[in-house]
Amino acid sequence: MREEAVHDGAVDAVERSMVRLRRGMSRRRLGKAAIREHNLPVDVQVLHVVDVVDEGPDHDGQEMSVGLVAARLGVDASRGSRIVAEAVKSGYVRRVASQADGRRIHLELTDAGQAVMEATRRTRHEHFAKAMGGWTDEERTEFARLLSRFVHTYED
Fold first, then answer.
1. How far, in whole angstroms, is CA 95 from its chain's centroid?
2. Backbone conformation region of residue 76, classed left if phi is above 0, alpha if psi is from -120 to 50, else beta
3. Is the pTM of this model over 0.90?
4. Beta strands in 29-132 (DSSP E)
């Protein structure tokens, strides 16, 4: 890493902001808000599973599996299996035989899972729109472009 990057004020500000954002997300504020605002009969952990399954695979040819859900949630395979089982039991996710290999199972959302996702997206949209309420259209567009670029390069 370049020495000047270590002392870059913009990088420092991004780092502090991302930590604050992570803390807010770790308190599951948006998930709890969606559950509360839409009176959703779902546990926050199950909501995270629904969200991950809705996101879909990382690339063509990949299927949503319990292992992929666990990896995205940052939990071990055993914990991932338990919360996926809860999402299935709750009726939001279903296990389906793989089209590529009938011995494997992949996950998909049920109609109830889709409804939960739509309500959750509305809540997120409302909260993010409120946070950017005083911004111009140009500022919102530029922020979206830069944030998408940052996330894309950060994940690589």
1. 20
2. beta
3. no
4. 93-97, 105-109
